[in-house]
Task: inverse folding
């Protein structure tokens, strides 16, 4: 018997190349970086305290609007921004972790869980901040509804800060790990939107829509959400400003 032939495998490997596609649309990228600024700013201002708490509250309200935008955009946005594209069951995450499944673009099945945990933690922080108060000068616009609820959510608001820090640290560590160990840049595509992905002849990889029509739709959605968040700021009783 002769040695098994390897030519077909080699030919298949040579046939596989990479293509550059749009992965992250502009609205998703803007959401990401504005959220980064808001989270960092919120952490710094709460530690400074005093009059900086005015900024802390406003940054929290912007974060609330961002979370509302991401929720809707995850349902109606372009391909890789949609939850239905990257959220998979535990079995898919386990196969990816063991290297038994390939991943082309967007959040991988394992990273999707990390991203969702981070979004849920930040979202909870923004919502609980509406009811929080420091018993001195600062309170959220809905803190007046119930002293008991305000006290409970203020405690959870402070506790969740540590959850957020842990998840952010995990997120940054994962980006560094992929960069250093797998030589895969996850940060660049979130800046310019494009990524190099593997492609085989006859199986084109679909990119995300990022047309001006998509961007105008995102702007209209953002404006509607901003109006809703502004309305929340008017709910505090007269003479009991929330900032």
Result:
């Amino acid at each position: 018997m002769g040695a098994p032939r390897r030519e077909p495998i080699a030919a298949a490997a040579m046939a596989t190349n990479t293509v550059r596609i749009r992965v992250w649309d502009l609205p998703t990228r803007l959401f990401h970086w504005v959220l980064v600024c808001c989270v960092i700013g919120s952490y710094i201002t709460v530690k400074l305290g005093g009059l900086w708490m005015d900024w802390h509250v406003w940054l929290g309200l912007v974060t609330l609007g961002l979370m509302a935008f991401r929720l809707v955009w995850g349902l109606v946005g372009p391909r890789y921004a949609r939850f239905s594209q990257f959220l998979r069951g535990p079995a898919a995450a386990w196969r990816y972790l063991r290297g038994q499944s390939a991943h082309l673009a967007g959040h991988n099945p394992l990273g999707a869980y990390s991203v969702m945990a981070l979004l849920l933690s930040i979202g909870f922080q923004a919502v609980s901040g509406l009811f929080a108060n420091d018993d001195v000068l600062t309170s959220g616009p809905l803190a007046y509804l119930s002293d008991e609820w305000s006290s409970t959510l203020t405690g959870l608001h402070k506790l969740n800060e540590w959850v957020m820090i842990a998840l952010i640290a995990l997120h940054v560590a994962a980006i560094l790990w992929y960069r250093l160990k797998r030589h895969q840049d996850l940060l660049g595509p979130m800046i310019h939107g494009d990524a190099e992905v593997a492609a085989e002849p006859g199986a084109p990889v679909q990119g995300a829509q990022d047309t001006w029509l998509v961007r105008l739709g995102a702007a209209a959605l953002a404006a509607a959400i901003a109006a809703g968040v502004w309305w929340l700021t008017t709910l505090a009783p007269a003479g009991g400003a929330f900032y």
Observations:
- The radius of gyration is 22 Å.
